[in-house]
Amino acid sequence: MRMPRRTFIKLASASAGALAFAGLGQSLAPTVARAAELKIAKAKVTPSVCCFCAVGCGLLVYTDTQTGRSINIEGDPDHPTNEGTLCPKGASIWQTTERSKRVTKVLYRAPGAAAWEEKSWDWALPRIARKIKETRDATFELTNDKGQTVNRTRGIASVGSAAVDNEEGWLMQAMMRALGLVYIESHARI
Amino acid sequence: MGALAESYGRGAMTNHWIDLKNSDVILIMGSNAAENHPISFKWVTRAQERGATLIHVDPRFTRTSAKADIHAHIRSGTDIAFFGGLIRYIMENDLFFRQYVVDYTNASYIVGADYGFADGLFTGFDAEKGTYNTKKWAFAADENGMTLKDPTLNDPRCVFQLMKAHYARYDRKTVSDVTGISEEQLSTLWSAFASTGKPDRAGTILYAMGQCQHTVGVQNIRALSMIQLLLGNIGIAGGGVNALRGESNVQGTTDISLLCDNLSGYLPTPKASWATFDDYVKGTTPVDKDPKSANWWSNRGKYLASYMKSVYPTASHQDGYLWHPKVDDGKITDYSWLQIFERMSKGGFKGAFVWGQNPCAGGANAGKNRKAMETLDWMVVVNLFENESSLFWKGPGVDPAKVKTEVFFLPACMSVEKGGSIANSGRWLQWREPGPKPMGDSRSDGDIVLDLYDEIRKLYREEKGAFPEPVLALDTDYRTDGKYDHHKVAKTLNGKFLTDVTIGDKTYKAGQQVPGFAMLQADGSTTSGCWIFTGCYTDAGNMMARRDRTQTPEQAAIGLFPNWSYAWPANRRILYNRAAVDMTGKPFDPKRAVIAWNGEKWVGDVPDGGWKPGEKLPFIMIREGRGQLFGPGRVDGPFPEHYEPFESPLESHPFSKQRVNPTALAFSHEPKAVRDKRYPFICTTYRVTEQWQSGTMTRNTGWLKEMQPEGFCEISRELAKELGIANGDAVVLESLRGKVQVVAIVTPRLKPFKVMGEVMHEVGIPWQFGWGQHVGKGDSANLLSPSVGDPNTGIPETKVFMVNLRKA
After folding, report:
1. Which of residues 395-424 of B touch A (CB under 8 A)?
2. What is the ipTM of this complex?
3. What is this structure's pTM?
4. B254 → closest Cβ in A136, A152, A188
């Protein structure tokens, strides 16, 4: 018989807790069960997939609806491949997400500069777009040296990324190819 | 992936993770699955609990070896010698699955008179260009264009006999001399794996970068793929060639093609000589006369037309094709990774994007890549963290004042903060729902692409510029309430009808989602961003988001889980499964049936083509419908042949006079260490379980950094004694390209080899560390590795090169 997952978690933690703490002389089972409940009571739970290797382990992400931050990420017990388990990297995803050295501002390094400057998206995107247009317009080839139509730029290269979603990666390649890039590579090649 | 497509038709892992449990013999070679795909080992262990034998062949004893029944140390770069010996062993001892080999492989095909092989070279070699004329390897055909065959397999010019002759040189003694594996152990290994050539035995081969990252990478995988065909292990439960893909979405981003050689769904990149849509279709659509061959690529035009309509819906598919950039005819590897950095180092690019990647630590010859970036006018980095690439302008030995490059760092959000699909190694398209909000100013890659593209298009609208048509016409209508909407793109990947289309007795209305790729059209009346995904998001809903564990008894018997997520193509869980049944639809192994014909319909998995039993041959993506033992489509030969790595302790080898792959991607101005006294030790690279790829994410995650804080070098006890190195000493590794200082780990996990009568030492170093933001605290192993690569794919040879090792 298959129990609904949450019933299973509640029962498992209650009974495991009761056994583990039996030596203390009093049953802590109700407290433990409440703690298990609390972990998810005010959180939004969303399924995700691990971002590291291509086993593709299922994750459950618990997000505090008030702060918008995740409070716990664990293996999805229903997922047929990982059955709730995770490797050290997968089990650390919460820390990678919430307590790591993430860059969360747009940074800019001017020619010759020795340090980054923080910038806004509104500053950076038009400037990048200008660079792309200048380079593309200056290097665009309608034909190759045999006179065949090629409609491309060889002035810009793009590498990455096998870490993006299919939808994002597809848009990325569509943008690159609309601009005429032919030097497009990523992780599959190394 | 180039090898799997050549052998079976599709560049993908044939089976899926759970299916490993169904195997009787598991050969892991060129992979440390226990540490690098840790959860895969749950299923390897389940197989072992059922009594399966686990074999691990690797230069190092790893945690995978610790769980194996048999482990053999192999000298890096000698896999083809090992596999060639196994092929010979299987053929000479009559251990192959004859019915399968005759019915489902090209063993019986007669090869044309122009094919030949001598002294390590196939016919058709052009020494000046370093290329083969592959037309010399064509099959012989009758006057109607049908390939000549000899189902008795006795004709001396049939594939089977040519293969037997080719591998006659791979005797046990020679293989032992080259690989460093003892003759006795070779016999044990070969006999264990060859035992799966019976209908009721299943053997699988698992590999990863240990096979790919060689100048013979594709031929390594061709060799093991041929073994699986000989033994009848393809299409069956517990069988297959299971390519353990690395990055979480490396399969998916190959499918949708963030690569130079294909467009989405494995459509070859348009080249200059295919000027028009019709030229492309003519040039890329195979023709076959055998009524039993499905020849699925005969549908090529439908997929290209649907792709063009999904990118440029306001243009005709013919115009969309005309706009599309084209590569020059010739080697596609001219556009690949190593060539990008070669060209960049010579000032060939003004600008570059680096999305979630780290060429200055993860790329071969990382020192060259670092210098190359200094030639750029601008670079856009999209990542979650700083790494050696985003900071190349202030790395070790670099004076920032002298680096002119303008660098933009755009902060991407974390995977759990966004929604969309990724393809796991077993081709399951799995769906993510967004959890927390993107942290700080970070944005999803989807938002970054759309927001940047708006700015680019604005400039082209306002100012015009070079060839603006495709820039203006690209469909970017993928937002909802001003934000990137992953559902909208997913629906485009699936595709829809643009006009009312009648197929058979059913009419589909304009705007309806296309239910399956068989309904895609060549006339511009359908869209599909990636035809192999069609079926993933239909009018019935988002199939990728399914979380239903229910299975029929047949499906449950082998753990197919067909209602969980969506597997491309067509939700098929085991590829080539028509090869798991005979011509009457009866499973070769009824206990582990993948599909079976019950007299009226197929039960079990989605069959690889719905035709009745025996109507069509099982390898539907191969022009002639049969698995290819003889593979005439690769640029470096139809049969795998042993060549030494570009850097090697040997000047020659006993199989032929040809030392290295004569077609490999290499730059003649970069010297190589061949039996060079200055660099006497073989070096290989690998990963540890606590770090991820070049370490960008995991070196910045405290728990993981604490467990694996810095780079090291594993050294055998024997070599350490010779060099006076103790466990924990600081040591320096040097190659012709660079040097790196790490901590010595003296261990019995590595052992000296006896190769061609000489004792040879191999050392190992993980490539996941780097200077990060702390100049002077160690650096990347890839400073040592060379810029040489496979001629088919361009994948660099980072798994074997020569170094010196000394105490710091």
Report:
1. 400-411, 414-424
2. 0.97
3. 0.95
4. A188
